[in-house]
Amino acid sequence: QVQVVESGGGLAQAGGSLRLSCAASGRPGTRYAMGWFRQAPGKERVFVAHVTWSGSTTHYADSVKGRFTISRDGDKNTVYLQMNGLAPEDTGVYYCAVAEYAPATAWGATRGYDDWGQGTQVTVSS
């Protein structure tokens, strides 16, 4: 089991930026991909971004392409989500997830991840 903790959420105005961080721990020496999901009030949790263990390959939801950037720290245990050009539609709870056992082909779905953080709130005002 991997422990996952998100941070960096907060309040931003439309057009502003936020950077989320996700720290994974508990399984030294293991390799896993990581991703970000978000859940707006009254909506289902949806995919936002994904990065492989090496950090060389990324995937993004169409809704955030060109605005959000996912990256991985050199220690491989921390990922970031740089969010630029925020809009009210980006409001929601953002969850970091770890693909510990799930197949890598499921990177765009919740079933592709095994360990989840508690979420961090992102609110974008107009």
Task: Explain what this protein looks like in three dimensions.
This protein is mainly β and 126 residues long. The chain is built from no helices and 11 strands. The strands form 2 sheets. Strands 2, 4, 5, 6, 9, 10 and 11 form a 7-stranded mixed sheet that branches. β7 (68-72) and β8 (78-83) form a beta hairpin. The radius of gyration is 13 Å and the shape is globular.
Entry summary:
The chain has 126 residues and is mainly beta.
Tell me the structural class.
Answer: mainly beta
What value does the Rg take, in angstroms?
A: 13 Å
Strand count: 11
pLDDT below 50 for ≥5 consecutive residues: which ranges?
none
**Percent of residues in beta strands?**
over 45%
Helical percentage: under 10%
Largest sheet: 7 strands, mixed
Tell me, briefly, the overall form: globular
**Mean pLDDT, as a whole number?**
95
- Give the terminus-to-terminus CA distance: 39 Å
- How do the helices and strands follow one another from N- to C-terminus? EEEEEEEEEEE
What is this structure's SSE topology?
Layout: E1 3-7, E2 10-13, E3 18-25, E4 33-39, E5 46-51, E6 58-60, E7 68-72, E8 78-83, E9 92-99, E10 115-116, E11 120-125
